[in-house]
Specification:
CATH class: Alpha Beta
Distance between the termini: 25 Å
Strand order of the largest sheet: 1-5-2-6-11-10-7-8-9
Keywords: Hydrolase, Manganese, Metal-binding
GO molecular function, one term: agmatinase activity
Largest sheet: 9 strands, mixed
Number of strands: 11
CATH superfamily: Ureohydrolase domain
Structural class: alpha/beta
Number of helices: 8
Number of domains: 1
Cofactor: Mn(2+)
CATH topology: Arginase, Chain A
InterPro entries: Agmatinase-rel, Ureohydrolase, Ureohydrolase_dom_sf
Strand content: 15-25%
Protein name: Agmatinase
Order of helices and strands: EEHEEEHEHEHEHEHEHEH
Shape: globular
Length: 292
């Protein structure tokens, strides 16, 4: 039982809480929806992402044909965070409370956004609990945008500043992939602060190799606009020239054997059943779970 949550439609293959026990020897994952999009500056609707990603998850099988593997993890859908519309600080406080409780229960959180600013709240929980040390964590960031502005439209906490605020938490490293949009300030900040970024035009096999070389715990944040708008049209800030779903699948599969301590998929602004964006987002989460 977690405070500041409510229980909507469950993600596919998730189990009821009575069946979800620390005594289970399978990897344990907790799915949390965060329906918040109050700093969105172009296309709103990410608050509906958790609902439509969950709905889309029922289109997939428990068996992965390409991996020849059946899903073998225990997943509990914890529900949605009680977000406070228009108030990032209060929403973030609720989010920190819930994620901290998840971590203390030795559960790996999988967060469905919501806009990208929520990732800061998730990682702030890691920074304030004794379960992980931020200085040991590599942030793997898949996105069309660097999100490294120090402020955006006068706001320090925004979907456009989230990676700058995460950098303030002093993680071991930040690696960005799929990038194709940034201000000069962001590019210079990445260069001057040792942030490793790969553009969408870079070779996918090179990105896979980079992931393979990561040592220690990894937190993965996927802004679904890393995909080209042909595959993910309903996002907060669509940007042409992105990855295709097969590229994204390869990057997720490259995480096999890695110590992933958290995973999120954000910026899904779907508003209808069967939307391509939510289908690709749900598949990304399932691809990750198949690798565990």
């Amino acid at each position: 039982m977690y405070l500041h949550t409510e229980n909507p439609l469950k993600f596919a293959f998730s189990q009821a809480e009575p069946d979800y026990s620390p005594l289970n020897d399978k990897p344990l994952f907790g799915i949390l929806g965060v329906p918040f999009d109050s700093t969105t500056t172009y296309q709103p609707g990410a608050r509906y992402g958790p609902l439509f990603v969950r709905e889309a998850s029922y289109n997939f099988e428990r068996h992965n044909l390409f991996l020849d593997k059946t899903l073998n993890v225990t997943v509990q859908d914890i529900g949605n965070l009680e977000s406070v519309p228009g108030n990032f600080q209060k929403t973030c406080t609720n989010l920190e409370s819930v994620v901290s409780s998840i971590l203390e229960d030795n559960i790996t959180p999988i967060t469905i956004g919501g806009e990208h600013s929520i990732t800061y709240g998730v990682l702030k929980s890691y920074d304030t609990t004794v379960t992980h040390n931020m200085q040991d964590i590599t942030i793997l960031h898949l996105d069309a945008h660097m999100d490294l502005r120090d402020d955006y439209m006068g706001e320090k906490y925004s979907h456009a500043t989230v990676m700058r605020r995460i950098h303030d938490l002093e993680p071991r490293n930040i690696i960005q992939m799929g990038i194709r949009s940034a201000s000069q300030e962001e590019r210079d900040f990445a260069r001057d602060n040792g942030i490793d970024y790969h553009t969408a035009q870079d070779n996918i096999s090179g990105m896979e190799k980079t992931i393979n070389q990561i040592k220690g715990p990894i937190y993965v944040t996927v802004d679904i606009d890393v995909l080209d708008p042909a595959y993910a049209p309903t996002v907060g800030t669509p940007t042409p020239g992105g990855l295709n779903p097969r590229d994204l699948e390869k990057l997720i599969f490259a995480l096999e054997g890695k110590k992933v301590i958290g995973f999120d998929v954000v910026e899904v602004s779907s508003n209808s059943i069967g939307d391509t964006t939510s289908i690709n987002a749900a598949k990304t989460i399932l691809d990750f779970l198949f690798m565990q």
